[in-house]
Specification:
2 strands, about 200 residues, mainly alpha
Length: about 200
């Protein structure tokens, strides 16, 4: 996956920058990444385009295409944003490595509930996966690899396979909450028991 540069250097003439409200030639790359993520999160087919990102970031037309010229570059930018979001949600639940199986289970429940409350991010990943499946493999692999490392550190056998099952359960819970049971989410204890069964 392409490593992002810390800043985006705009190459538009000063007049275009001034018209867009920018007097400097250097703009935080995070602004473009945030706009790309917001574009992908919209429930509109084909919402992720260079023009949409320019508009949402309030940039001169063509700016995003200069820095991310291909569709794959743009999808990669959003994928990195989605992965950073997942990592941030996990980090908010506690220390990087769980101290025990029970701690890991509690973290998984908290992580899943947090994702249920922010379905736009997950849905953006689904839409991108449907249109650009192979380009999303890096995000999935990165999350599974992180779970595998934690499981192995806790002495769980077949850590890689169990990590994939955990991912499937988390995604299934989110779908469940978005469709048939919006007003009746799974109880924490029920979800915790499901994760324990996977790890037993």
């Amino acid at each position: 996956m392409r490593q992002g540069r810390p800043r985006l250097v705009l190459t538009k003439p000063p007049s275009a920058l001034d018209a867009g409200g920018y007097s400097a030639r250097v703009l935080d790359r995070a602004r473009v990444a945030d706009a790309a993520l917001r574009a992908a999160c919209r429930p509109v087919p084909g919402a992720l385009t260079h023009a949409d990102v320019d508009r949402l970031a309030d940039l001169p037309p063509g700016t995003t295409a200069e820095e991310f010229p291909t569709e794959a570059d743009l999808v990669d930018l959003v994928t990195n944003g989605l992965l950073a979001h997942d990592v941030g949600v996990w980090a908010a639940a506690g220390a990087a490595l769980p101290a025990s199986i029970e701690d890991f289970v509690a973290r998984l429940v908290t992580f899943t509930e947090a994702l249920e409350k922010q379905p736009e991010q997950w849905l953006a990943g689904v839409r991108l996966a449907l249109d650009h499946g192979p380009l999303l493999e890096g995000r999935y692999d990165a999350v599974c690899d992180g779970l595998t490392v934690m499981l192995a550190a806790l002495g769980v056998s077949q850590a890689g396979g169990r990590a994939r099952i955990i991912m499937a359960l988390i995604e299934g819970v989110i779908v469940h909450g978005l469709t048939v049971k919006r007003a009746d989410p799974l109880a924490r204890q029920t979800l915790a028991d499901a994760f324990r069964r996977i790890l037993s």
